[in-house]
Amino acid sequence: MSSHYSVMKEECLSYLDVKEDGVYVDGTLGRGGHTREILERAKKGRVYAFDLDETAIRECREALKDYPNLTLFHANYAEMKDLLPEKADGILLDLGVSSPQFDDISRGFSYRGEAALDMRMDVSQTLNARTIVNEWSEEELIRIFREYGEEKFAGPIARKIVKVRQDRPIETTTELVDLIRDVLPQRVLREKGHPAKQVFQALRIAVNDELGSLETVLQDLPELLNVGGRAVILSFHSLEDRLVKRRFHELSTVEVDKRIPLRPEEIEEASFELLNRKALKASEKELGENSRSHSVRLRAIRKVR
After folding, report:
1. Which residues pair with 116 in a beta bridge?
2. 103-136 b/e with 16+ CB inside 10 Å = b?
C-alpha cells in the first residue's frame, strides 16, 4: 500500500471527538490514515468513507479489511446526502490531492515529471486536463487560471496555449510546463516556487470540480449531521478555505435586525457553533516531518440544535 502522511491527524481526531458507538464519515479516504484512526476509536459505531480514486478504494478495502464496521463508497463526497443511510456524529474532509496521487507521475497531477495531461481523480470520467488545455476557449482558460489558480499571467498563458495548439495538441505535463516557462518574465521565474504550480492547480480543480463538490457538501451539512455532530475540514489553498470560512460563518451566526425590539427568548439562535475562530495550522513538529503540511488550514464546527 502506498505511503501517505495523515495531515494534522491528532488535531482532526481531537476536534471530531470520536465516540465509541458514533457514526463517522471520512469524505476523502485517500490511503486510509485518518479513517483507520477513526475506526480504532469508533469500535462499536459505523464509519463510512468516500473516494473518487478507485486505487484508493481497492487498497483500503484490503488494508482495512479487519474493520467490519467500515463501508466504502467509490463516489464523490458531494453525494453524501444521497448515499449515507444515516446522519453522522462527525464528518472529516481532507481536501486536495493525496500524496500517492502526486507521487504517481503517470497520473499527471505533478509538474515535476513527464506524463500525459490527465489529473482525473476518477479515471472513469471523460473530462481530463488534456481536453481542457486543447479544447476549451481562451476565455474559459483565462477564467479558470484566474479563479482557481489565482495566476497573475492567466491571459498570456492562455493565449500561448491557444497559439501552440493550432499547430499541434499539447499532450504532456512537460510540454505545458515548458510553455508556461516561455511566457513568464524572468523576474517571476527567479521567484521561489514552481512557475507552473498555479496553472496545474487550476486545471486539477476544473477537471475534478473540486470547488463545486465542496460547496455542495457545505450546503448539505445541516442535513448530514446529528445534533452534537461535528465537521472538520482541512483546506490546502485559499479558495477552499474561503468557502469553508464563509459557510461556517453563515451556519454559526444569525442576522438580527436591530431596529426590531425583541425579548431575549425571541432572538433566534444559530444551529451551529464554531470550534475554532481562527484556522488552525500544522505544528512545528509536523512541518518538520511533512513539507505538504505547510499550506494546510483546519476549521471545525459543531451542530448544537
Report:
1. 172
2. bbeebbbbbeeebebbbbbeeeeeebbbebbbeb
pTM, whole model, 2 decimals? 0.90
**Beta bridge mates, 24:** 47, 90
Kindly tell me if the per-residue pLDDT of 2 is higher than 60.
Answer: no
Compute the radius of gyration of the chain from its Cα atoms.
21
**Which H or E element spans position 15?**
helix 9-16
| Alpha carbons 296 and 234: distance in angstroms, whole number | 6
Strands (DSSP E) along 44-129, which ranges?
A: 46-50, 70-73, 88-94
Residues with Cβ < 8 Å from 191, sequence gap 6 or more?
none
Let me know: does 31 contact 4? Beta carbons within 8 Å: yes
Backbone φ, ψ for residue 123 (5° rounding): -70, -5
Mean per-residue pLDDT, 159-181: 97
At residue 5, does pLDDT exceed 80? no
E strands along the chain, which residues?
Answer: 23-26, 46-50, 70-73, 88-94, 225-235, 272-274, 297-303
Place of cell 505538504: 292
Write out pLDDT tens, residues 281-301.
Answer: 999 999 998 887 889 999 999
Contact 13, 36 (CB under 8 A): no
Backbone angles phi, psi at 226, to 5 degrees: -70, 160
250-266: b or e for each residue (b if 16 or more CB lie within 10 Å)? ebbeeeeeeeeeeeeee
Half-sphere exposure of 206 (CA within 13 A, CB side): 25
Grid coordinates of 53: 480514486
